[in-house]
Amino acid sequence: MTSAVMPDTLAVTGEATGEATGEATRDDGWSMAALMRTAAIVLAVLVLFSGAGAWGWNVGRLPVPPLATMVVVFACAAVAVLLDISRLGSGVMWGWAIANAVVAMTGFLWSSGSEDALQEVRTRVLSSMQLVAYVVVLADPRVRRAARVAIIVSTFGAIGLNLWELTHPMTFSISLGRSAGFYVNPNIAGAALIAGMLLALPAVPAKLRELYMLAVGVGVFTTLSRGAILCWAIVTVSLLLSRAIRGKRLIVLTAAGLALALSVAGALLASGQLGYIGGGAERFVRQRLSIGNSEGLNADVSASSRSHLAMHALEMFGERPFAGHGTGATVIWNEPESTHNIYARQLAEYGLFGAWLAPLLLVLGLRAVMSSEHQDGDAGDEPIRRAVGFAFMLFVALWGLFSHNVLDDPFVLIGLALIAAVPSRGIARAPDNALRAVAPTVSSLSLPCS
After folding, report:
1. How far apart are the C-alpha atoms of 396 and 78, rounded to whole Å?
2. Are 276 and 177 in contact (CB under 8 A)?
3. d(CA 149, CA 417)
4. H or E stretch covering 6
């Protein structure tokens, strides 16, 4: 009697098991969805994360703007979702990105309504779209591994350009004596290098992690960005305290690196390759590193102007604390530049209506880092991923004190998506789980033979 139903029952059970283990089956081979995701993130890292796309377009070396790359990434993410809807990524990051776009558009209603304000809305909405796209494409653990490898390539490229620019000043950089590479702005270059160091660290062999961090530290130092140097030092201490890296090895490598750097610098100075370091350039370098007498320190216009900008933004917040002055208010104000501080900018432009966006993002990122199942199969073990995740969120929080564009930079957006990556649970798995639960019951039933 049972045999009459067993073939069908086994078929149902087999289908249920096959569908329920579909995640593992898909992981065995590269599906079209996985290939689309990988192509999207590798393109985003090599063109957007690296700064090469913006630099190439601005100097006429690339025929298409960075926006074209973003469109390709969006298209790949959309196709990947259509092919594999079970991998949508972090829902909380989706929610934050939507909220960020809605607040920017709503804030425009009581802004100046100028073209500059409208451009700010476009930029912030586009950043939200990028974050969603990166969350989607990085929902596959294999793609995350590919992303980390691409970030290693991008980071070493940036370090190489910074070192090369020491003997070819202002090839890329807008500041004499400060390297920047494709990022053009030395401050952004330093921040991107730190992001690259942290995000790629789990993919670096354990024996080489300290050497990798030291190489990044050299690249950051060539930018002479005090904010970036401070952030590098703080996240390095964070990784040391979490035992993600070995302190003794880092100290030994640092001592050896300093000796090598001094030898190379001496040889370059003797050969005249660093002849531009003199006069005004030398005073500028000493000022950037706070080396010299009190007059030199008082002459630091950069630090004093940033303090002035932040205070001006807080004064604007005091004038309209609930709704702020509207999107783009710190772009069109009577100052030469914006706030250099994401927290002050959001207070001035959004007031309490939207000032929670940056702190909430930090909380969501830390929540993902601390979650026991926030990663599923990335390179490296869980302790290093957690240590790196915490250090990256610490970096984002600190860099927000030095930059008002921290939530628009591709290397931050990609990093947030990578840190917040979660295993997919939703739509495709629910029917499978239900089928697996029902299958044993079905197999125990018997139908009368006709």
Report:
1. 28
2. yes
3. 16
4. helix 6-20
Give the pair of three-digit tokens for residue 328: 């783009």
The pair of three-digit structure tokens given for residue 325, joined into one six-digit string: 């002055």
Q: Is 130 exposed, middle or buried (0-12, 13-18, 19+ CB in 10 A)?
A: buried
| 70 sits in which H/E element | helix 66-83
pLDDT score at 11: 38
Helix (H, G, I), strand (E, B) or coil at 291: coil
Token pair in block for residue 60: 């006429």
Residue 3 has pLDDT above 50, yes or no: no
Amino acid (one-letter) located at 362: L
Of 197, 170, 189, 105, which is closest to residue 392 (Cα–Cα)? 197
CA 224, 358, 41, 57 torsion: positive or negative? negative
Query: What is the distance between the alpha carbons of residues 244 and 394, in angstroms, rounded to a whole number?
Result: 15
Please report the sign of the dihedral spanned by the C-alpha atoms of residue 86, residue 89, residue 90, residue 94. negative
- The structure tokens listed for 108 are 């425009």
* 3-class SS of residue 180: coil
Query: Region 250-263: what's the mean pLDDT?
Result: 81
How does pLDDT run across 332-367, given as a tens digit for each residue?
998 989 999 999 999 999 999 999 999 999 999 999
- Residues 401 and 245 sit within 8 Å (Cβ to Cβ): no
Record the pTM: 0.83
Between 4 and 191, the more confident residue is 191
